[in-house]
């Protein structure tokens, strides 16, 4: 059996500060990350640290560089300057495929592969010659509240279910970091609440470090311990979510 | 009718070309009514085609009097020109000329060399150049179709490809569905040719052989042989060119470079 979810208290805003003070080791550290395209700086010397069971929300207006920043964290895009450290090791020293298994990514629009939910969950482990057992698929689906969905064709899923399958598919690689790019932006209020609840649950139970891009300040207050506000690619504010965004 | 007016071959050819051109230009103007603007491309292609084929006719006159090895030079030149045409179908990706040259060179080259060695194509200029050029031209079309389909599919499915990369898949694994459809796109015209051979069209080579007095059954079989050679070289060229282009679509850090709204320079900066 692969790694089991670690039972722990639910993640709550403010946890990260306590862990920092308690000397917890950072999982991911972005150092002076910069990306310039045709002379236009999308992300400008952004630095931050994320700890286990930490959810860092990245906010800012459209075009502020939120998604550009997120795509650099698992090296889908290359930084012009700066780097990311995964457990104190620069990610340029880590083979890209290993890096991306350890730093899971769920995009704004979840691109599920044609086929069943189970096939989607098995895709990541298969890339390194591993096979998910039935009970592992069931555990992943249980983690995102989709018990019994293994044989469902992805074409029959609702928007909220699709996002939760995308999260479970990223979790199938047993990542240490989970990157979420506006995971609920296309969902209605009820579906959004469900996805949020399950994301918070897996972050807490799996001990993940999470970076989530969102344009929704309310959502950041509900979910994040730390908030980072970007403006024109630069950090405008960073700190405990309740302080940065106001109660 | 034209042959009754023009008794000189050159004048007759010119008049026939004018009639065909008028029809082609009419199609172009018809397309304009649906806001399909291809005037420049059509006019340039027509002029280029006319000049190139007349030049080739003159070169053939000289070649037919020269040694057999000169046909290798002519076919090599045709292969380079064909690669140059094919590469334009995948603008925005570096190294596409070498990719197209490799695909057409290996696809058409291996078929021409093997078939000449086996005696299917006669090792004489009068046979090697016309048959070889037919194979190269069709291979060029297969390569261009395959590369064009590959480029458009990769751009259209960039999200799915990056989803695969983000899950730790290797670049070639993420491209498998698009390589498959691109190879099929490259081969499809030749499959249609084989299916419709004799039913929908009687190819020019066979027609020429029959007119020049060759036994019609042998002419038909030889035409089938040429179509099969074209199918083989087209399929091989599509496979090779897609195998060669795949690494160019990703950076060394396995990042997708062929994005619909991103140029190569943007992606690797």
Description of the molecule:
- The complex is a heterodimer of chains A (247) and B (269).
- Chain A is of the alpha/beta class.
- Chain A has one domain: 3-Layer(aba) Sandwich (Rossmann fold).
- Chain A has helices at residues 15-21, 66-73, 96-102, 117-126, 134-143, 159-171, 189-206, 217-223, 241-245; strands at 28-37, 40-50, 55-59, 81-86, 89-90, 103-106, 177-181, 209-213, 226-231, 234-240.
- In chain A, the strands form two sheets. Chain A has a six-stranded mixed β-sheet with strand order 6-7-8-3-9-10, with helices on both faces.
- In chain A, helix 6 packs parallel to helix 7.
- Chain A is globular, with a radius of gyration of 17 Å.
- The N and C termini of chain A lie far apart (42 Å).
- Helix content of chain B is 76%, strand content 0%.
- The radius of gyration of chain B is 21 Å and the shape is globular.
- Chain B has 269 residues and is mainly α.
- Chains A and B meet through strand 1 and helix 3 of A and helix 7 and helix 11 of B.
Characteristic key phrases:
heterodimer, A: 247 residues, Rossmann fold, 9 helices, globular, B: 269 residues, mainly alpha, 11 helices
